[in-house]
Design goal:
mainly alpha, Arc Repressor Mutant, subunit A, 8 helices, about 0% strand, elongated
Amino acid sequence: MKNKIKSYAFKLLSKRDYFSSELKQKLLSKGFNEKDVEEVISNLKEEGYINDEQLEKRLKERYLQKGKSPAYIRKKLFSKKGKGDLNITFEEELEAALYTLRFKYKKSKDYKEIVKFLSYRGFSYSVIEEAIRRYLEEEEW
């Protein structure tokens, strides 16, 4: 039975990476025994096929590069693995905010409008202030 579970797990992992909790839910929904599923997942972790920390780091970097806010990233990670703990530095959040302004903001250069734009996307106010300052300096040139 464990070979069948492992085979199905490999089939799922061949399409995309999963957090261990996501993979467990998929396998349980397929009707496999919970004890066997946990053993298989533990085995996959030991063999290096599942690594929650590395996957979390890759997703965090990908979302930051796309200009997503820490609030958005926390929500996404919580929905995938059940934990919303996340460590994002001020500089990482600032770069995401600047990316968002450069490539997604098309309105006027009004300070209040930009604050509203970034705050609706979940950025912290200290990051918003710095991002606006840098963004408006870039636009002057």
